[in-house]
Amino acid sequence: MRDKVTAGLAAALGLFTLYTAAAGPYVSLIQRPVFLALAICLGLAIYPLWEGRRLRPLGLALDLLAAAVTLVACAYVVVHQDRIMTELPWAGLHDQLLTLGVVLVVLEISRRAIGLVFPLLVLAGLGYALFGQHLPGALGHRGFGPGFVTETLFLGDLGLWGLLLGVAATTIAAFVLFGAMILHTGGGQTFIDLAMRLGGRSPGGAAKIATIASAFFATVSGSAVANTATTGNFTIPMMKRLGYPPAFAGAVEAVASTGGQIAPPVLGAAAFLMVEIIGVSYLRIMGASVLPALLFFLAVFLTVHIYAVQRGLRIVPDDELPAWSRIGRASRLVPLIAALGGLFAGVLTGHSIQTAAFWGICGQVGCYLAFGLAGGQRPAELGRKVLAGLVDGGKGLVIIGVLLAGAQILVSMINLTGVGVTISGAIAGAAGGELLALAAIVALVCLVMGMGIPTTAAYVLVAAVMTPALIAGGVPELTAHMFVFYFATLSVITPPVCVGVFVAAGIAGAGWLAVARDAFRLAAVTYVIPFLFIVYPGMLGGGGWIAIGHAVVSGLVFVLASALFFGGQPITGRPWLDRGLLLLVAVLALVESWLPTLLAVTLLVALLLLSRRRRAAAADPAAGS
After folding, report:
1. Measuring CA to CA, how many Å separate 358 from each of 55, 153, 384?
2. E strand or H helix at 95, and its extent?
3. What is the pLDDT of residue 222?
4. Are 36 and 169 in contact (CB under 8 A)?
């Protein structure tokens, strides 16, 4: 019974998303409450209280009560939306009770889905707004009563029903559904097959498959944990079967999947939030993310290659690789091309992002059904797969909707109390006016704040508190947001609370500390790439073609030197000297001037030629003498 209810609610949420993507969203105080009501009810069905325990009857009663409170609260806003927006009513006792109820339900579902860290942060924000007047010094404020907090959160579109939930209920929802439809109508297997053919026959082939497959999945997913669970269940066992150390296998998948959150077009849903927060175009966000994402995946790919060559890791046998003829079938490629073509056609013709996603879904599903029927598949079977994509997409919206609702509560309290400005000022003071010191402090705070929280919510929180400090230090707004977003993303693989590593370690059957160690080695470059945004404006597409060219050259040199460094590439025969020279190349590449860059290029080329000569001499001693 619960499975049917869950599927029905998920399908209803998916259909609501499809309809509003096609026809356009309702006004904010209708679209957002309806979306949140469906997401919460679905969340209660997916994460039942005390499931499988003797207290389940009581848990069911509490879940039904939570659903009833949510429906009443959301319906109240929908019915009275015109009065709320025009009269700005005072909060009565019933408003306060409804606000308390829906906030508690949002936090409870967050607790069930991801743990206590995020709900406690939100509660801390609410507590600070209500009782912060009792704090001494700069952290104290004038105080806000329950009535004023209720008016801020509930009776308007700047609190709970604000921007973040609005983006979740429109753009992000449409893209989640877009990705689910692709994966459930054959796109997921096509991604894996392509990755196997492209990387399987070279050294470290299985690890390269994980890297390439995660990059493909990134185009429609943008979730590190989802990528790890999806591709990892295929790639990690393959790597272990071919003799890769379990910890290394888990690390490759965790790191490659983390790259999915920083790769266009989805960027872990942060792209859509940046569009609204910064006020720049979606294409600008995508363009800014291309070079950093390429550098990230290139760094992982090269490090894996060098590591595999040094340790003689096996390639994938021919009989395990799919045939190109199977991958290249029109029935597999045309739906993918139609999906991405519809998406980008919608964007380029000036339509909203959610409408463009709807066109992509129509292209994907239409081609999938046409090829399926032409191939003799039964309509009922095809319909079940499409419905499965709709249901899976609806389920994927629960965490996004609920977490962004919770994040919106916290951001509203930060803005209400002004604590973000206070913290930014304190960070700027600690940096003493040094931009790189300021960036380093911000990076550390972002890593800590993002631990245990899904990337989209983590980005929202760190953006609200940290970006003002960077902007005040002279960093452009887009650069500041991309900087904090990258470090919020890296918290997924940064100990001690590294969710992506935990998932990969569970699949690999390895200790999470060993996986985290190897993951850091593979992802070390990514901890430096955000600083390149500050040093090189061209890294994010700014400053003109010369600046972009300089960023490309410096970035490639830095990535290659880092891959050789962490991969343990022998060059001179003295490991300490090899590491020192490669470190020098990497440092020169970080200096914002053409002369150090050219020196880095020259030194790197010389080291590569020396390494090649030594390998040739080792292979042919007569030639070497």
Report:
1. 43, 31, 20
2. helix 93-114
3. 60
4. yes
Do the Cβ atoms of 252 and 207 come closer than 8 Å? yes
> Which whole-number Å values give the CA distances from 564 to 191, 253, 539, 553, in the listed order?
28, 20, 22, 17
Interaxial angle between packed helices 117-131 and 146-153, expressed in degrees from 0 to 180 and rounded to the nearest 10 = 130
CA–CA separation, 149 and 134 (whole Å): 17
The residues, any chain, with a CB within 8 Å of residue 218's CB and separated by 6 or more, are: 227, 259, 260, 261, 263, 266, 293
pTM above 0.70, yes or no: yes
Q: Are 422 and 130 in contact (CB under 8 A)?
A: no
Nearest to 428 by CA among 420, 438, 436: 438
Segment 340-364, tens digit of pLDDT = 889 888 878 878 888 998 999 999 9
Contact 99, 153 (CB under 8 A): yes
Determine the residue type at 370. A
Q: What is the DSSP string of 130-148?
A: HHGGGS-GGG------HHH
**Residue type for position 470:** L
Cβ 483 vs Cβ 444: under 8 Å: no
CA–CA separation, 547 and 230 (whole Å): 38
pLDDT digits 0-9 by tens, 5-36: 999 999 999 999 999 999 999 999 999 999 99
Angle between helical axes of 379-417 and 117-131 (0-180°, round to 10): 30
CA distances 356 to 135, 350, 351, Å, are 49, 9, 6
pLDDT reported for residue 113: 87
Contact status, residue 250 vs residue 505, Cβ threshold 8 Å: yes
User: Taking the CB of residue 91, how many other CB atoms lie within 10 A of it?
Assistant: 20
